[in-house]
Structure formats: structure tokens, C-alpha cells
Amino acid sequence: MKSFSEIDTTVKRASKSVGFDWGIAEELGKNIRLLEMFGLPGLKNLNAYFKIYRQKQFQKISLISKINSSNIAYCPIIAGINFLDQITNLEKMDEVGFENMSYPMLFIPFLSRSTEIIGKRIFLNIDGKEFLLNFNQSIYSNFLSGDIIELAKIIKVKFIENKNTFSENEWQELYELSEGTFVEESEQLKKSAAGAGLTDND
Amino acid sequence: MEVQLRDPKEVMKLSRLGSFHQSKLSFLRSFLREFKNWEYKRDLLELDENGFGIVVYSFRKKKRIYSLICFANKITDQERSDRVIATKWDAAFTLFDGIPTKQDIERLKKNVPKQEVGRMSYKELTLSRANKSVRIFNYVAECLSNGQQPDKNKLAKVGYLYRTTAVYGSGKFGLADRFRIKNREEIYGPFRLEMMLVYLVRQFTFDQVNHIAKSKNPKKAISLDPEISRNLGIGNSTGLGMAPFIVNHPLLLNNWIMAREVALKKIRQIKKINQSDVDLIINCLKSSQKNIENWNTESDYQLSKINHLKKDLDLLIQYFLTRFDYKKEFSYNDLYIWAKKSLGSECLEFMVSVIMEPYEKIVSPLIKTMSADEDIYFTIPVNKTISDLRNILELNYTDILKIDFTQKENNQNFWFISKNKEEPRLANRFKDNGSELEQPLAIGRDICQLYQRISNEKNSLTIGKFLMNNNDLRHVIRRAFITEKFPYAEIQDNTIGSKLMPIDMLRLKLSFFGAVKFDPRSDKWLRICMFQGAPLPNELKTTNDHWVYNSIN
After folding, report:
1. Quick check: B440 pLDDT over 90?
2. Which residues of B are less than 8 Å from A23 in CB distance?
3. Closest Cα in chain A to B469
4. Does the CB of B467 have a partner CB in chain A at under 8 Å?
5. Does residue B552 register a pLDDT over 60?
6. CB contact under 8 A, B382 and A13
7. Which of B162, B170, B194, B240 is deepest in the core (most CB within 10 A)?
8. Hey, is the C-beta of A100 within 8 angstroms of any chain B C-beta?
9. What are the C-alpha distances in Å from B496 to residues B1, B345, B419, B492?
10. In Å, how far is A154's CA from the nearest CA of chain B?
11. Residue B65 is assigned to a structural domain of this protein
């Protein structure tokens, strides 16, 4: 088994070798390490992308809008870098869409890292494959095959407002159960058990 | 009294960093302090009459066990080389997490001796190899087999029986990644498991030489005297491979230097000084005089530094004996002010190390601050502005910005990774091929380029927007924002100029390891000694921490 440290270093060097700047290569080392740590096929997808990277032309998007569409497939790395760099503006858009992106798995770690920056989850849909990105702590997905995804026709990135997964009623029910650990205080205890003075005007 | 931390522009110059010495903060000393109450054991010794075979040692506390597995091999004199291009070594080692099974040992027997071309697993924590100092090893074995102890003076010239040539950890060659073990309290200090490996290897060298002597002459042979053993360490040959580490780990570098600087600041702020503390410092300085006499090197560069150190050390001891008044308040601060004016860098930094000796309460809490999780500060704060970035560059890179990188001599070298061994190397940009594959270690040059590039940008432009068209400088933008928070993160010097002495970078790192007797063999590699004078494993519980200043002879 390759260690994550080996993956990070080798990806960084390989990324520089195919033509990315050192600063981007550093990001890719961390990204592929992240995907592999979450059990997603990062290295496999990167390797496949780099095989065609020099032969084909890719759209290198710089300014990301709400809807991004191109006849030439987007480079997932440049799209990802700019998504990460522009995240505080993009967050305001509620939803961002891309049409036609190569090797979209490589886009995912940039989004995962973005969730940590903005403190919000992101729901990602890549042609029906769903990913919930949780503050860069985990990725929950229905895509478990480990396959290479060469192209995404439609990508939807939705920023999820911070809210609970349960209702107020469910919370109350559980809270009442938690009250079973509390002790009913006598009048004397109410006065003395907290340790504070009887008046706060001193 | 509030003393300021020393200015990074003063401390982080390569010539200064190359004058650092071991101290109470050094990793091998903090390792011994941490593990002194662990149970040490030799679990297995299966060597033939020539000393070839397997030996296993362990450190154990409650349910945690670390085992060093040693594989001693037969190699010819022609195969023995300290250079990284070697493929065979006298012995190879791995530190195993737990107790190895027979299957583990069989697996490791096939891989550990191959080192870089073998494969380790997540169960192994560190990996190393070492070569005999043939002259000394055979001499000691011969003496012992004849029932005699070896001549101490002869041993003092070398100081060890074996030299390691590399110690690997943190996920290299399939070893366990740091994240798997980072929450273990006993390894909060940096490189602790690497230090454990080297320490146990030292014991292996004694056990092996004793075993060979006994096999040679079972009736007459004696064991190496513990006092002689104690005064032998483990040698190490270190080349350029180590130098880029300190550039590639800015946060870790900051934390090492910051711990040292905070210790110095707190000592300078001590108002009332105990006489016993001063006596300890004076004893350490006097013992050091003897040790420095035994510091052998043929390097003119190092000889000159040693001579300055000797001369200045006399002055420093004189100051303590005649002018240092421990009854006066803040006398350490007076000492530092005098030393800065009167001593060279080599002795000034030596003094900084030695005055930490009495102050366990100051040093001990700093040890745990010397590790770093570099990933936390990896993401660039893209909402900051060009104005913020310009301020950082002008404040933190003042001297770097004065370097003219259009001058050939300031841009002479480039760092690259050798295809042969995947190790960092240095070459001349104007003579050698490969500069197009330069590693991102020319920080000064790239910072200057960044400063120039932002000169025409609007102050209010965000870094996120600036990066859209300037990703070629992304690596130094990241660094600049790290230095904003961590002032000692950056070497304040040119790392590619014609005057660069790479051994300064090596020495900085090795001093934090706790190495002594730096012996440069060129400007690009040096030999050192580790654990010389250290207690033997069975003495750990009863020893004090000042062993490093014990006179060798």
C-alpha cells in the first residue's frame, strides 16, 4: 500500500511535470491525498487525466459565474483552483453550475476544502452522482464504484445553509429525556449550590 | 522587564543558523527524557559468529510497545559506502509499532535491507541503515576478544562504531503516515521515533561487537566497558538531502526556532538567579572546553569556526567568573547584551544553548510546541488584499528584497531532484543541465518577483483575484501569508547564490536533532555524532539530563 505521504509527493511532482505551476502542484498533492483518504479514486482519475492532458485542449476558466458553459471541456484543476480562490463570492450565488467538465472527480477536493472555509456543506451533483461534502471532514456519496469519470455533462454545486437534520419536535422529545439526569433543587440549594452570591449588586 | 524576541532578520541568516548547537530542546535529549521511565528490553539476539543475523529491542509502557528490528548483513569492503547511491549496508533497521510476529520479521527481512527499493507497511514507523566504522569496529572486537578494553584515545578520534547514512519516517517507502500516530503523547516532540531508532541502533552496535568478540575467543573475551560504551555514539553522514527540508516545512522551522527564542527571552527575563544555576552553567561551559578539544575535523571552514569558539569560550567563562553577578537583577540580560557585542556567532549561539541547562521549567513546556501541522495554514487567505501582501513582504522580507537576482552570482545555483535517488541536489545554472526542472526552493528570488509583480496592482485587489493570472507565484504567496503569523518560518537569505554554504542548512537541522562534533567533508556534506555520552538504556532511569556536557575522556 502506498502511504498518503508518498501519494502527496508523487502527485505534486507529476503535476509539475505535466505543466502545472508549483503552487498548483502543491494543491493537487494535498487534494489527491484527501480523496484517497476518503476512499475516492483520486489518483486513478488524475493519472487518466494527465495521460490526455498534453494532447487535448481544455478550457481554463478564470472567473466563475453562476452558470458556466463551454464547448471545450473545462479543466477540472483550473476550475477547482479558481472555485477555491473565489469561494466567498460564489457562496452568495446559492448554486453554481458547470456544463462540460473533464474528469470531474478532480474538482471535488477543491469543493471539499471550500466547505471548510465558508463553514457550509456543499451538495454536488455530477450527472446524477451525488456527493455531500461535509466541512472537509468527510464526503458522503452514492458513487462507490471507484471508476474513472472522464466527462461530466452537467455539474451542480449547491451551497447548503446550516440547518439541522431534525425537527424542533424531535429535539424537544430528546431534550425531555435528557432532563431525566437533572436533580430537583430545594429552596436552600437554589440559593447556595451555584456558589455565587445572593446579590449581584455588590 | 520585558525582553523582545530576537529579530528574525538577525537569527534567520544562514551563517547564524549554521552556528547553532545542540541544547536542552534538542530532539535526542527530549526523547531520552520522555522515555527514561519506559521498560527497555532486548527481546531477541540471533547472530552468527561473525555478527550477522537479527536482533530485536523494545521500549514498553503499559500497552504501548515499540520494537527495533535489526538486520546485520555481510557486505564486502567495496560495497560499503556512506553515499546515498549505496545499495548494501552492514546493518539495516526498522522501528516496528508493537511486537513483530515471525511473519512480520520474515517480511521485513526481505525488505528492510533493500531500504529505498524495499516496501514497508503501516506497521513500521521508521527505517534506517548504517555502516561500520571498519577501522574502529574491528579494532574494538579484536581488543575485547583478547580480554582487553580498547584505547579510549583511539576511540575518541572517531566517537562511534557505526554511522547511519539515512533515517526515514513519515510515510516514506510505505512506512506509517504521521496521522496514524500523531495523537500519541509520548511522541509529541518532533522526530521522536527517529531518535528512538538511532538510540537503539547504538545499543545494537555494542551488543554486536561484544557478540563477535565472544564468538572469536569464548574463554578470554570480555564485554565493552559501560563507561567506554557510554562515550561512544552513533555517527551520521548527511548530504544535501536534508537541506530543502527546512525550506519545505516553514511552520515546523518556525516552531523550532521560536521555542529556542522564547527560551532565551524567558531566561533573559529572570529577575533573581540562584547561584546553583550559575554553577551548573559554568560547569557545562568548562566541560565543553574539553569536548571541543576532541572535535576533530579537516575542514578549514569548520576549523576556523572551532578556533573562534575556543577563543570566545575562554572569554565567556572569564565573564562568568569575574563579571557575572548573580545577585544583581536580570544578570542574564546583561550577559546577553555583553555576549552579542563581544562574541562571534558560533559562541553566542553556544551560550544560548548552555544557559538553558538549569531551566527545565522554561524548556519543558516548549518541547510540545515544536511539532507542526503544516496543513492548517496551507490554504491561502484569498480575501486579503494586495495591500496586505505588500505590507507582509516589506516587513518580513526586507533583506531579501534588497538582493538583485539579475546578477549572475545571486542566481547561480538551482535545486533539483536527482533521477538516480530521488534526492535533492544543487547544481550551477550556468554550467549544468536541468535548471528548467528547478525545485521551488529559490524563495528569495520568487519573493522578489512577486514584489515586483504586485507593484502595479491596486491596493484593494483581493489575493483571490490576483491569483487568477498569477498562479505561477502561488507557492510564494502561500509562504508570505505563513510568515505573517510565524516570524521564524523563512530563511532570511539567498538559497541559490554563489556564496551559499549548504552545510549551514544541514547544521541547523542537525543541531535541533542534538548532533555534536560537526565535521564538514565539503560544503555539501558532513559527518556528525549523536548520543555520544548518553546513558545506556539500562541507566536511563537514574541519569541526569546534562550528560551531553560530560567530558568524553
Report:
1. yes
2. 440, 471-478
3. A62
4. yes
5. no
6. no
7. B162
8. no
9. 41, 23, 20, 12
10. 24
11. yes
With an 8 Å Cβ cutoff, are A87 and B382 in contact? yes
Compute the average pLDDT of residues B108-116: 95
For chain B, how many structural domains are there in total?
Answer: 2
Looking up cell 541507566 gives B539
Asked whether residue B54 is assigned to any structural domain, the reply reads: yes
Q: What pLDDT sits at residue B553? A: 47
Nearest alpha-carbon partner for B422 in A17, A10, A19: A10
**In chain A, whose CA is at the least distance from the CA of B125?**
A3
Q: Please indicate if any CB of chain A lies within 8 Å of the CB of B453.
A: no
Instruction: Output the pLDDT for position A197.
Output: 58
What is d(CA B145, CA B205) in angstroms, rounded to the nearest whole number? 16
Query: Considering B485, B517, B546, which residue would you say is the last residue of a domain?
Result: B485
Which of A1, A3, A22 is facing B475, going by the closest CB pair? Answer: A22
* pLDDT averaged over every residue in chain B: 94
For residues A41-57, give the mean pLDDT: 96
Q: B388-409: per-residue pLDDT in tens? A: 999 999 999 999 999 999 999 9
Is the minimum CB–CB distance between A86 and chain B shorter than 8 Å? yes
pLDDT score of B453 more than 50: yes
The whole-angstrom distance between B55's CA and the closest CA on chain A is 26
- Of B239, B258, B283, at which residue does a domain stop? B239
Q: Spell out the long-range contacts of B276-283 with Cβ–Cβ below 8 A and sequence spacing 24 or more.
A: B276/B358, B277/B326, B277/B358, B277/B359, B278/B320, B278/B324, B278/B326, B280/B357, B280/B358, B280/B546, B281/B320, B281/B354, B281/B355, B281/B357, B281/B358, B282/B317, B282/B320, B282/B321, B283/B549
Task: List A126's β-bridge partners, or say none.
Answer: A129, A155
Cβ–Cβ gap B468/A62 under 8 Å: yes
Q: Do B475 and A21 touch (CB under 8 A)?
A: yes
| B128-139 residue pLDDT tens | 999 999 889 999
By the CB < 8 Å criterion, does A26 face chain B?
Answer: yes
Task: Summarize pLDDT for A105-150 with one digit per residue, the tens.
Answer: 999 999 999 999 999 999 999 999 999 999 999 999 999 888 999 9
Confidence at residue B355, expressed as pLDDT on a 0 to 100 scale = 98
Q: Which residue has the higher pLDDT, A86 or B291?
A: A86
CB pair distance less than 8 Å for B171 and A3: yes
**Chain A contact for B375, CB < 8 A?**
yes
**With contact defined as beta carbons under 8 Å apart, do A33 and A11 qualify?**
yes
Instruction: Establish if B343 belongs to a structural domain.
Output: no
Structural domain of B420: 374-485
Q: Do A5 and B170 touch (CB under 8 A)?
A: yes
CB nearest B379 (choices: A2, A63, A113): A113
Residue type, B453: R
